[in-house]
Amino acid sequence: MLFPWTRSVEDHLKQVGDVYDAVVIFRVNTAFETIDAIRKGAPRAKVIFHNSDLHFLREERAQAVDNPNVAERGLSAPATKGRELSVIAGSDVTIVHSHFEKALLAEYVPAVPVVVFPWVYEPRGAGAPWSERRDVVFLGGYRHYPNVDAVLHYARDVAPVLDARMHGIRFRAIGSNPTPEMTALASDTLVIEGFVDDLQPVLSNARVMLVPLRYGAGLKGKIVTAMAHGLPVVTTSIGAEGMALTHGENVLIADTPQDMAEAVVRLYTDEILWRKLSAAGLDFVAATTSRKAGLEIVAEDPGACRIARTAPKPCRPCRARAPCPGRHAGKPLSRRASGGRRPACPGTGSGQGQARRPRRA
């Protein structure tokens, strides 16, 4: 919706609200301000709240550390929690990216369907071999303050310990909008690179991804991105949270500066361990965040079916009304079974029949 053609959500829904089968809302503040108008203006539409992370959880954690960010210290986590849970309770389905957050919401709003959707990120290949790789890297956008805090935490607490173990090792902070407090720390061994046009050369030639997050929420895309490039990861428990990662199998998890430095040294100097985690990371991405894996997760999750469930309409392959009685054995109908036409059963594997694709607002 663009101004001046549409002046508000309410005006838009008065005009065309009846055409929507589903409305997807992003971000808690936007959802809180618009969900009542959507319910009123598009009464037949399913409301899907797509939450990138639980904001109240991140704010609670931000206030539990010695956080230097004035804006985050001023946030009211209880107020955010009230708004966020209100939106989730008022939605037909909520999408999250973290298994931890799905379990947490089951305690707060047990009657509301919550679905874990994976990030979709394909494996990009193994990159350069261990012997040709150098440096420790961190990746993040620095308008998101947990990433700034992670770099400051590294500089203040981790770097001195690591330098005592491996003098001269270089840490590169990659990502847009580095803050003045970050750039003030720049040195030969702490490089604030900022935005780069192409991450491939960076991630395919670095030896270790270090993610020293002290707080945050949701799935950490930087970890998926590193693994997809064959770059092994050292992270905190907060960084690994909700991703079904296993310490020593596909990641190294360390929470204190001493343990973090030890993990970096191990991974940086042990080629056998490095190769094991590099291969395991690529396997993890293929199994959990590839497009193929994402489609399988959505098809197999009963909660995901609620996202697509609308008024019963004919299922194209079998022409049945929902629920599709045959379920097509959990697979799309073959071209032969569908009369030579391309099969298209959005209810495949779910028994929910056809769901119309939501039109964009």
Verbal overview:
With 361 residues, the chain is an alpha/beta fold. It contains 15 helices and 10 strands. The strands form 2 sheets. Strands 7-6-5-8-9-10 form a 6-stranded parallel sheet, sandwiched between helices. Strand 9, helix 11 (237-240) and strand 10 (252-253) form a beta-alpha-beta unit. Helix 3 runs antiparallel to helix 5 and helix 10 crosses helix 13 (271-288). It is globular. Residues 310-361 have low confidence and may be disordered.
Quick overview:
The radius of gyration is 23 Å and the shape is globular. It is built from 15 helices and ten strands.
Topology:
Elements: H1 9-16, E1 22-26, H2 28-41, E2 46-50, H3 55-62, H4 70-73, H5 77-90, E3 93-96, H6 99-108, E4 114-116, E5 136-139, H7 145-165, E6 171-174, H8 180-183, E7 190-194, H9 199-203, E8 208-211, H10 221-228, E9 233-235, H11 237-240, E10 252-253, H12 257-269, H13 271-288, H14 291-300, H15 302-308
Parallel strand pairs: 1-2, 2-3, 3-4, 5-6, 5-8, 6-7, 8-9, 9-10
Helix pairs in contact: 1-2, 2-5, 3-5, 7-12, 10-13
